[in-house]
């Protein structure tokens, strides 16, 4: 089905806030431009990194290979119980 | 004269270098010293051309320079005495602020230093003489003791073996019976232990068995004093020499003089020898009393000297620096009585008012005595002219004129200069570390865009892409926070330490870089889902597996979750970073993580390079280089976008369009390789499609790719020939203008071209230019074509190699991840898995944990951190800055006194 709606919106709003809203609200001073540059670069870098990681997993080509103990661990810890029979 | 007016300048960030004003500084010889002392403390003035090798000195202050050297030599001598006696030399941390130097202080320093030096030298010489005298008496006493003991007890038996004695006895037997043997002669002295064996060997070869030597080592070493050298502790031997004949003594004495043997008197009878020893002991006691008094006096004098020696030394070094600078300035004024020093200086524009205030204050302070004298003269004049009325305006005019002539004057020069102004950035403790990274590569040109503000974020970010691990990032944050929190103690330690700690200085200077590297590593740890090689499951994995017991307990169990089945993949990716299932499936996740990290490295690399080209465009706009913008930077951008921007598009398109759960022809089997697609695009090649798959990723792919390649290759001729042709046309136009008596501007053209190629422009004189105009034009034109060709080749090939260079982001990230995994499985897991009894199991687990912790810090944080740091540095210096940064500027070298510390 591709991307879910909420994570994309959440992280885009988060880094958009850091990269657009916070530079607008930076108080005036000798380092205002520097702070704005830092905020915008941080937002752009972190958002791009998250986006690449998210999009790479949107439509996986292959699935993971699991061993017996891993399946048992997943069954016990991740709420995927092994069915009797 | 026009006095420079105050101008309020807004303080800017360090995106570009500060505005520089070229000024002329006129100093009066009476207060130039005090003015320059204040300027040195402020540290915002650069004196031009004063330290060139061919600079002529005005020799007005050569005597002062020599005097400062002499006084510093006296200071070093006193310091040597102080170190010898371990006297406390008081250290003043605030010497730069509270003990500021004035020119009249130098006379006081000179007088007090010379007086203390004379006293200290006299007392030291006296002490040395007393100690030498005591040492000689001790040697004499010891030698007498040994000789007396030897001769009383062993004289009879030893003499029997002497060859000459036997001969003497034989002769005596033939002439008379019972006669006493010949009278023995003996001599005592002291010799240095290291010279004794060669001395003994030489005497044996010279005198053979006619001379008998006995020696004994003194119980403790003694000091030897030689003028101009440090006192030396030496081991000494007391020697006793006996001979049957007096004929060999002159030779022996010569050899003793050559070997610096101290010869002492030795009475012939035992009782006299014992009396002599007692007498010497009494004298030694008396001399030791006087010696203690002398040492006490010496120590007192040196303590007085040590009280102020640090201040005097620091201020003398400053005075030496100032006098050397004054000796290099140009003298102006009358020929017979020069009164002014002239200097050409660069000052940051925003600092000019402050420098003016400093110079005015220094002039006023220095002119205090003159003011008193002036007021005294006025009073005398008033008394003399009491009956008459002096016109007030005349006196009013006289006073300001004197003040004007005595003060320092700072004039701004507006004429154009050939050389580029120096580069100066106003930094604070946060930004200085990042600026140092850039300056290590090259100093920015004047008013060129500075890479450092952007490096504040991109450097820690790219470091974290390679180093990303939440646990290791937290370690970096803790370490840098400790240094930031303890910065007062560290700075105090750096000031007071007697030896410099290089590693601490480097880490302390980069503490904010380390902090940001830690913060971004924590973020990367969240996205990579790694905490010390382990993952965490915050939001629930998108993958699930439901099997029954029969399937799970099958011995051949080994399953791959099918991404096309809803039971295994939910259809929505893990919201933040990597899915935890890839952390638990072990080595099988490398295929997926490698694919992700390689594509991510390409995306980040091309983004940074495009950002660099954007900065190049901004730089051209700010420096008013439209030709460079249109003919160099924009073709580069088009080339990069058409080829490597398309590569990024392919990556994103594949991520969106192809998936295991999609029907053919967009399923896993049909997914094309991005790299092969890109190579086929460059080679304009077509491959046969796989069965049931399309031969394109999107409609009209072939046509679009051919168009993009065509556009990219069209930019290469523009890069190669655009600017040279533009310069040729401009030169032709300038020649036409020159025929119309317009001013020539060829130098700027060459400067533009060469600054783009990162060459410094030459200052060609007008005469040589007129001589060979035609040849020079041809030479310059061929040079321009060569540079343009090199630049084009570097751009085209550099695009490919720089893109490939960013793959190191993936390589180091993989290495860090695998090393972390190895430490976990090979070290710590063995501690967890041990089945020993509790009494032994807990210590084993503790030992295993400490081994794992130490190896984690030493290898993963330190070694891997340094490796990632260096690779990030290369990515910034070469891949990023080569797009826009010239780096051929000169740094602003202000006349400045460094902060005084214990080693000053």
TrEMBL record, chain A:
Source organism (scientific name): Drosophila melanogaster (Fruit fly)
Coiled coil: none
Gene: VhaM9.7-a
Signal sequence, renumbered to the chain: 1-21
Entry keyword annotation includes Transport: yes
Membrane topology: Multi-pass membrane protein
Protein name (database record): V-type proton ATPase subunit
GO molecular function term, any single one: proton-transporting ATPase activity, rotational mechanism
Similarity field: Belongs to the V-ATPase e1/e2 subunit family.
From TrEMBL, chain B:
InterPro entries: V-ATPase_116kDa_su, V-type_ATPase_116kDa_su_euka
Major place of residence: membrane
Ion transport listed as a keyword: yes
Gene Ontology CC annotation, any one: plasma membrane
Record-annotated membrane-spanning stretches: 461-485, 506-531, 601-622, 629-652, 704-726, 838-861
Any one GO biological process: proton transmembrane transport
Superkingdom assignment: Eukaryota
Keywords from the UniProt entry: Coiled coil, Hydrogen ion transport, Ion transport, Membrane, Transmembrane, Transmembrane helix, Transport
Job of this protein: Essential component of the vacuolar proton pump (V-ATPase), a multimeric enzyme that catalyzes the translocation of protons across the membranes. Required for assembly and activity of the V-ATPase.
Name of this protein: V-type proton ATPase subunit a
Natural source organism: Drosophila melanogaster (Fruit fly)
